[in-house]
Amino acid sequence: MGQKSSPGAGDSVQPVVGIIMGSASDWDTMRHTAETLDALGVPYEKRVISAHRTPHLMYEWGTSAAKRGLKIVIAGAGGAAHLAGVAAALTPLPVLGVPMESASLKGLDSLLSMVQMPGGVPVATFAIGKPGAVNAALFAAAVLALENASVRKALDGYRAAQEKKVADTKLP
Ligand code: RP5
């Protein structure tokens, strides 16, 4: 299962991260998660799944995620953003949530509905929008790096490049 869109570095081998999003309209943000995982060589699958619009698919995907070899789920959703919470209810895998910057409330609705989980069903919620999408990927990579030397090396390289870029910044 898992419709994989256009093949990229992340789709070439057994995916270990499952990126899901509530709508194709979330892709402009969630592509930053995919691009960051690509840069680190972490294989993933990506799919649009809505907790509200496709509840049966949500159940099927969530209950099969671990069996299919995924290790971490990253869920992006906006508005009444229940995707990450429902995913966390269905899978024993760690679920990272990325709140979309919604048009009407600038993502505060997404953030609050994602972060305010009841005790017993955790979702690790990240910042609204692109920073959260990037950081969710980096966090997932940091967890995978605990047992994967090549991801550790890629993550170290990413951070070194980031440090150099900021330190070398020239102001006008
Ligand atoms: C949520 O509703 C999605 O995650 C998306 O952020 C928001 C709006 O979806 P569309 O109406 O653009 O499909 O479920």
Estimate the helix proportion, in percent: 40-55%
Q: What is the number of beta strands?
A: 5
Strand order of the largest sheet: 2-1-3-4-5
Bound molecules: 5-O-phosphono-beta-D-ribofuranose
Biggest pleated-sheet summary = 5 strands, parallel
The total of helices stands at 6
Topology pattern, helix = H, strand = E: EHEHEHEHEHH
Query: Shape, please?
Result: globular
Query: Spans with pLDDT under 50 lasting ≥5 residues?
Result: 1-9
Structural class: alpha/beta
Q: In angstroms, what separates the terminal alpha carbons?
A: 51 Å
How much β-strand is present in the residues? 5-15%
Radius of gyration from CA coordinates: 16 Å
Task: Provide structural commentary.
The chain has 172 residues and is an alpha/beta fold. The chain is built from six helices and five strands. A five-stranded parallel beta sheet has the order 2-1-3-4-5, sandwiched between helices. α4 links the parallel β4 (95-99) and β5. The radius of gyration is 16 Å and the shape is globular. It starts with 16 loop residues before the first strand and ends in a 5-residue tail after the last helix. 40% of the residues are buried. Bound molecules: 5-O-phosphono-beta-D-ribofuranose. Residues 22-23, 25-26, 50, 77-79, 100 line the site of 5-O-phosphono-beta-D-ribofuranose.
